[in-house]
Amino acid sequence: MSALTKQILIEKIAEKNKQSPSEAKDTFETLLEIMKSTLASGEEIMISGFGKFQVNEKAPRKGRNPATGETMTLDKRRVVVFKSSGKLRAKLNGWV
């Protein structure tokens, strides 16, 4: 099974909305930029019926360099987490 790529998504958007591929690409790119800047500012993105994207803070932690075995401290970091909605979970599990 292959992944649904950005290009395939753009083609599907263009087809469903009867748009040119360049219009669909512009719309999709705009959506991605809005999502990136929203998450970068620490805000959540909630899409009703789909799920929620949120930024979690990871504390600094001890790690080990696998090549040398040397112990090191890994810096704190921010990660994006996705939590699916109940409707999406129901669809995935065939409950709908």
Structural commentary:
- The chain has 96 residues and is α+β, with helices and mostly antiparallel strands.
- It has one domain: IHF-like DNA-binding proteins (HU Protein, Chain A), CATH 4.10.520.10.
- The protein is 40% helix and 28% strand.
- The strands form two sheets. It has a three-stranded antiparallel β-sheet with strand order 1-2-5.
- The two termini are 23 Å apart.
Structural class, from secondary structure content? alpha+beta
Poorly predicted runs of 5 or more residues: none
Enumerate how many helices there are, as a single number: 3
Shape estimate: extended
The CATH topology corresponds to HU Protein, Chain A
Q: Tally the beta strands.
A: 5
How many angstroms does the end-to-end distance come to? 23 Å
Give the strand content.
25-35%
CATH architecture: Irregular
